[in-house]
Structures are given as C-alpha cells and as structure tokens.
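Sanity check record (used in CI):
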Amino acid sequence: MELFHAQPIVNSILYSFLGIVILLIGYYIIEKLTPENTWKEVVEKNNVAVAIVLAAFIIGISMIISAAIHG
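Expected output for DUF350 domain-containing protein:
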C-alpha cells in the first residue's frame, strides 16, 4: 500500500503556476491599456491611489482565476 500520493501535489503545483501565469498576463494587459506606467507610478512617484487600485485588481483577478481553476 502506497502511503504517499504524488498526483495531488503535482496537480496543486501545476495549477498554481497556471494561475500565476494567467495573473501576469492579466497584469500585462492592464499595463498596456492604461496611459501611464503603473509600476513607475507606484514605485517612483509613490502614488498610493494607483497602488490601491492595482492591489484591488490583483485580488479580483486572483479570485476569478481561483474560482475558474477550482471549478
């Protein structure tokens, strides 16, 4: 009898990487749609409003991705 099942761990890692890739693609699309460079706005200009909107976007897209992957 096998005590260690690797398939659920492999599936979890695979779906995690898939979710991260989809999130990065979504961020790249938003970065291209906005008129300013959001990363430069947050880091160099310390724009808190843009940081909050970007964080809300990342959380929202992450919830959608997790729901789509989970089923």
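The mean pLDDT is 88. If this sentence no longer matches the regenerated tokens, the check is flagged for review.
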